[in-house]
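Example record

The entry below shows one chain as it appears in the dataset: sequence first, then structure tokens.
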Amino acid sequence: MDTEGVSVGLDPHVFGYAERGGHPEVIYRDVRVPLDHILGEEGGGFAIARHVSGPGGSITACARSGSPSAPSISWSPLTRAVHVRDEPGAQGLIQDWIAESRIEIDMAREYVLHAAYLMDTVGNKSAAAEIAGIKVAVPNMALKVIDRAIQVHGAAGVTQFTPLAHMYAGMRTLRIADGPDEVHKMTIARREILKHHPGFRMHPLGESAS
């Protein structure tokens, strides 16, 4: 950081939260890097970044994404349903939410395991659609589960007095940080179409052409 030309710019907070270390801009102006400081080959930085954030990172992120939603159904709605929310119909409704959440979490986990299995057996390229699919399905699932827990907690669910708001912010951010849903869906759609129409090609803006 004390190299000439390196400075820190804006330090944005994510949904108002300041994570440890933050996400600051690092600005480089005419920075000269000594040859003995270079990691890898000159011009190879993008390949390193792709390796770090590639399919393996996606599987890890999706596997971890199942864990924030699990506490949301195990202690949050259940505790309030049994011990707090005794108004007519509330317990039945919340029990339905718990069941739905359990089903959705288990389905998402199986999807992740299936993608991981394909990566191991047929390779990352052949598993591209499944990898893209879990990037869409898992964060959206976690958001639904956490949102139900927030609703059960009422006003407290969006405050610092429960971890739910922070968990929701993290899951919503993941839908951008690991690539936007729309790009992943395009990957899935193209591969699905090519199964039936091998000559199909897609223009950069999304218009199809034969």
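Notes for this example: Confidence is low (pLDDT under 50) at residues 205-210. The longest helix spans residues 90-121.
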